[in-house]
Design goal:
The chain contains no helices and eleven strands. The protein has strands at residues 2-7, 10-13, 18-26, 33-39, 46-52, 57-60, 68-73, 78-83, 92-99, 117-118, 122-127. The strands form two sheets. Strands 2, 4, 5, 6, 9, 10 and 11 form a seven-stranded mixed sheet that branches. The mean pLDDT is 94.
Length: 128
């Protein structure tokens, strides 16, 4: 079994910053990419960002481009999400996930279905 643990969530004022971390552990798992998603209660889980390990390519949903940065270390099975200029609409539970699938298109990693393993989530609340 693969476990992912997120940390770094919390309460922040609008225009503030947070850095989320996610570490994967457990049985040997060849990760091809890791991603961040978020979910507001009553709504579907939404893709935020992904990083593909072989080339280090990143992909973001439009609403966070220029504000969020995904980075990580594949050798350490660790991924980060630096969130700047936070807005109240960024409030959600943030989840990290890891995939072993390989796709040609970066946008393929935006689909929740390509990730078999997920963390438990960390709450991010942005006050206005």
């Amino acid at each position: 079994q693969v476990q992912l643990i997120e940390s770094g969530g919390g309460l922040v004022q609008a225009d503030g910053s947070l850095r989320l971390s996610c570490v994967a552990s457990g049985r040997t798992f060849s990760s091809s990419a890791m991603g961040w998603f978020r979910q507001v209660r009553g709504k579907e889980r939404e893709f935020v960002a992904s990083i593909e390990w072989s080339g280090g390519s990143t992909y973001y949903t439009d609403s966070v481009k220029g504000r969020f940065t995904i980075s990580g270390d594949s050798a350490k099975n660790t991924v980060y999400l630096r969130m700047n200029s936070l807005k109240p609409e960024d409030t959600a539970v943030y989840y990290c996930a890891t995939s072993s699938s390989i796709y040609d298109g970066l946008s393929d990693y935006s689909a929740p279905g390509v990730y078999p393993y997920w963390g438990q989530g960390t709450q991010v609340t942005v006050s206005s």
